[in-house]
Records
---
Amino acid sequence: MEFLRRADKRVWGWSALAWLLLSVLGAFWALPHIEDELDEESLSVESYTATDGAKVEWNGRDGYLSVPEGTDNAEAIAADLADITGTRDVEIAFTEPRSTPTPAADLTPAAFDVTWDQAGAVGAGVVPNGMGNDLNSLFGTGDGLAPDPSRSLGDDTEATLRNDIAPLIGTSLVEGKLTVEDETITVTGVAADAEAQADIEAQLEAAGVNHSISLPAANPAIFDVSWDGEGSTQSGDAPTDLGDAVGALGVGSPLTDDGLTVGDNVSPALGALAPLIGGDLISGNVSVNDADVVITGSAGSQEALDRATAALDGLDATIDLKLDGGVAAQTNIDDLLALDKIEFVSGTATPTAETEAVIDEVAAVLEEFPTVSITVTGHTDSQGDDAANQALSEARATAVVDGLVARGIDGSRMTASGKGESEPIDTNDTAEGRQRNRRVEIDAKESN
């Protein structure tokens, strides 16, 4: 029996030790769970959640409450937190040195401003004690807004700043300035786009905020399109919405940019010009700089010039059209040579009587177009020696130039050359073909 009693005592001893260890372990296990529970319970304390800048941290059952300086109800908040079941104590710490509150009657309204752009926000001025950190955080102004115990900020003004203005800064209101003085709020700035501008203005109007909201400054397009017989080329970017209009000018792949603008007069000008390019206007240029449009062009005939002038009449643009003397002169010369071929006495460089009449008419064309120069080129058939044919072709071209000089045409406007038999336009195996190859060509161009 004595042995059983001793065994029973040992069992009770081990049981007590085990219970003690479990209690200690349970206490350690419960600590973080207690902190989580207290964090959750804190959110139900109205005085705590309603106070801006208030924050409580739990260490076991002890709470450490931090509140902005000047918070009048700090003790009440701590007492409410201490009433949570399981709380042992709550201590108070102020985030800025506490000062003696100034009587409301002696306070001066806050006066500060905040400016911002894509680089960030900058604040300057004074705000009430206890609101410096909060407002600097709200506007992203670092420590630019300084607390001052002599300043006040009305509840309505503060609510407008928080709810209506702060969400706009750096978002839909990409840059601007906020000014608060004597409880009056003024906002100026640049909206992201027209839709944002309308929304911001409506919101600030409803909030009773003085405001002036504009759109981003226009980035005017500067571009031009030139054309000639080889096609159209563009330099500089046009606004994206004018891509089709530039393409209609003959540009295969228009250069465009979404961020560019032009005057309302540009689209009608390009639309009127498009049908003329490569037709009535054989060459030219249209230059656009914002709302300034300059159209220059050359027509190949007086009739084409008249049609182009009429088509562009009334546009808000500078128009400078002219007759391309080289083309007009070439047309007239081609018409002459199609009717009367330039011929020479067989085997010589002496023009026939019929050719002298043709030279008279060519001289008349050159007198009509004094800015036109010509190149006269002689050709032969393949009969005879190559060198002789080359010399003969040069001599015949020179004979035409000499004939024009004799008729009063300045020799500096003309050049003579010969190609011999090297550039036939028909076969040399027939008399008819050889006759076609024996020819003089005249090419005209505008010389200035």
---
Amino acid sequence: MKAIMGLECHVNLLSKSKLFCSSPTDYENYEPNEATCVTCLGYPGSKPVLNKKIVESALMVAKALNCEISPVMFFSRKSYFYPDMPKDFQITQYEIPIAKNGHLVINGKKIRIRRIQIEEDPGKLIHVGGGITNAQYVLIDYNRAGMPLIEVVTEPDFENVQEVREFLSKLQSILEHLEVYDPGKEASLRIDSNISLEGGERVEVKNITGFADVEKALSYEIVRQQNLVRMGMKIERETRHFDEATKTTAMVRKKETEEDYGYIFEPDLPQFTLPEKLIKSIDKQMPELPDARVKRFTKEYVIPENQSQIIVYTEKALADFFEACVKLFNKPGYISRWIVTDLLKVLNWNDITIKKSKVTPKLFTEFLKTMDKGEITERLGKELIKELVPAGKSVKELVKAKGISAKIDLESVVKQVIKENKKAVEDYKLGNEKAVQFLIGQVLRKTKATGDPNKIKELIKKLV
């Protein structure tokens, strides 16, 4: 049974003030309900004023996603009666969004973008003593109410969860390169997904955060629907919630139709014209986007394309880090290999990003240079990087803490090992290759794995 999925991606855009008022967006630094004003709390008589920066940021996203820009746009009221929206309606775009008919290509497949719309975020519900379906009571924090969002709505072009993951990874990379979004902020990217089996009714799973949870939620929902069909049961149109603790979805309500929201034109905001001059100024602001950066890395630095893709799409800060390292140590292939195979592994193990780690380009390149000069082995390097990432100490400090000298007279050590292991030397002279491996092991033990095994072997052959 083939699954069909479409996404609604709610992106929190960077701005100092909210979408329709001057209340601050750094609400994490405030007590609950303090980063608010009469407008975002929906007081009678308060009037919204559109944040120009958000319009410009939304236009940049639309350009990056190959969308058609609307020459005019206006806002509507989406009525719904839930406590997280004090006005009992959300200001959003419905009839004419800021952009439509775009696409994003993943692995040669075009994922169509139906529309991009600007809207305000509701407040935050805090479920105490349980989850959304069984909490003892609910608290409301309106600090998030009125935060500026764009909603990127796709067509139902996804056929499996892996495609969804790749799309979100690429979308996030684009947003970071545009510098309109911070993945570290709370609720910065939330996903609603419509899922159906071919020919069946669709189910919406709302407010999924984190790529891993998106995969788990969609995978669970696909299997749930398939099992219902196998048992001869009907799939009903409904809205479901993903429970992070149980990794399952639960029914929240029967799905509303568009008519249930009672969209009407927002009377407190005018129709906005997007002049050609503004569109052209956005064109000039557009930075190098991820796809172009991958191609440049592959060509300019002569590194494998898959390494370029990992570095660029993992995090913009990682791509910036790579280029900063190349400026300090002109061996891009060596740098990219260590980033992809070891640095990322340790960052993931410590659950941090390069941006939040203590590893600087200077520290990392000094670490690589020490191995490149043969002062320590790559084998030791793979152990030291596990401490380098969380500690942010130089390789010299790490080596000193282990009681290792980074500069060892390797020839003297080899001579000493030859002198102490005469039988192994004689066996090697008789053609026993295992004997040389034993001798190499003895040298590595004495040098605490700081010597290069290949150089040690050459010295043994030379001195025996």
---
Amino acid sequence: MLASLRSATLVGIDGRPVRVEVHISPGLPAYNVVGLPDASGRESRERVRAALLSSELPWPMQRITVNLAPGGLRKTGAGFEVAVAIGLLVAAEALPDSVITDLGVLGELGLDGSVRRVPGVLALVDALRRTGCRRVVVPFNNAAEAALVDGVEICPARSLAEVRACLQGETDWPEIPTLAVTPPDHELGGDEPLDLADVRGLPTPRLALAASAAGGHHLLLIGPPGTGKTMLARRLPTIMSPLTREAALEVTRIHSVAGHAPISHALTTTAPFRAPHHTASTAALVGGGSGRPSPGEVTLAHHGVLFLDELGEFAPATLDALRQPLEDGVVRIARQGMSLAFPARFVLVACSNPCPCGLGARACRCDRAQRSRYGRRLSAPLLDRFDLRLTVEPSEPGEPLGASSTVTGEQVNTAVERQRARLAATPWSCNAHVPAGALERLIPLSPTATEAWLTLSGSRELTGRGSARIRRVARTLADLGDRADIEATDLATASVLRADMEAS
């Protein structure tokens, strides 16, 4: 007696189809799982048995073999348990074989027969859809997220008994709960929403922040404590454009795989904001880890912002691990028998003190060796990847408050729409992503602007990467000013926003 069902497992942030084969044969009662399951899969026997008995369904007192195919793919998690339980009922002829035709099954079982949510259901359902499944049974708490996948019928399930009754046609499947939309991060967890109007003065850093939001440019702010660096950085999401539907689905999928419940229950339309502590390890920042590699902070910040406060306190090796994701927009992780690619197209915003004491040139108490050691934490190749680099000076007490996030956000949205229209026929979505080879075609310069650009590049002895970044920032400044062409003043301002900061 054999039953075969379709399920799926996670490999990185992608779903892979798995065939769950359940075989019952005469012999002493036994339960074996083969096919490279992890510890959760090997422990499924007691949960499946208790769930069947709690649901008043039969448990075969025979030899049970569960195979998770393909046998060479490592399976993770307890998301196969509902499929195993249904397979046992079909193999024991308690359910007809016809009910599992074109059916995919996901879910973990509780001892009381309840069906519990699984991480990464969006990727798992998409993998089942590609194999030809027309219906997928998912936990009720995952149903709203699973419904984002087009072309497949979602069957929410609260309990194993309910699954059996619905498959038998004795009752209808529950209604899919309404999909929520995650409010912006700046409206969560605080008494008052963050707003750029809270920052007094600082017109140049404000312009740099708007350029970062509009063009996807990496931003580094250096200055003494209390100058407003962190206040500015934390308000960057409040002026960023809403995510497109494709980007929102990708962000939801990544956070679902990572097991982040606040986002995996809903579709988020706002850019994610990640702010890891400076003690974060390299694996935590860029991804990896033992067992199944998991996405790091750079992937969780995909289509959003990665904020590194106290940049000089991060380990130098951890910071240098960011260089490849910053350049390629992807993290590649190699393990024995597998190679994974995690998306990592984010805006890096970093803040740092000028020296260990933080007081800078005016009242620095550090000796030369301390300043040199602190500066070496930031390598020249990493500094060169920041499009915008500013020294932030304290604002005067009488300076007025600046524009609100709403006003600046409207200006950013206009610039983003202009970019999207210009780059619509290309693989790139913002100015910062345009490669050097496409600058002449996508970011052209007038003869006057070309002369200014070449003069700037020569006078400052910029690298090829540095001069290209100034050109991209100038295009963003022109977009913010709603100008069709780059002017010489845009290049001059872009040069000011990229101050010389050499690693010691």
---
Amino acid sequence: MYYLVGLGNTGEEYATTRHNVGWLVLDNLCERHHISPAVLQNSVSGRVSVGKIAGVSVSVLYPETMMNNSGAAVRKFVPDGEGKRLVVLYDDIDLPLGVVRVSFGRGNGGHNGIKSIIDKLGTRDFVRVRIGIGKVSIWPWQKGQLIRPQADKLPKFVLGKFSKHELQEVEKVTESVNEIVTVIVQYGHITAMNRYN
């Protein structure tokens, strides 16, 4: 069994924000693999569903705790000793929109949802699927360089809604995430890292 967690904030006002890209791609993943819609389970403080990806059993969680307290739900959701089979899908401001990376055992990278999970689980040893939401410069002298918002503007950026153009890019990203998660559950995160990073 693998445990898939998408990070996001609950509420319609957050539905298409950059910070909720983990939920957006997880929605698509569940739909592709005919995993039934997630149902609220108060015992784990989130919406849960079960199904299979490439014949491998998965349990899916959308925490309803708000981003900064995601670890409270994840701690209830993942059984003791199964942390290495936890796969967290979330936004990464330090990757350009359209880029996806797989990692394992890293720090929180300044992401409060990941910080909460590490704190509550007491370990960094879980798989992350980091989905870029960063903006890239279009100016010729900085073409392709990532433009990170200043600290005081960061919350407004990550809680801002995707533009129509950006949502088209997110749709393409869901293809990559689908492939990556399928490889993770079939062959493990190391194979996925070697293939997609």
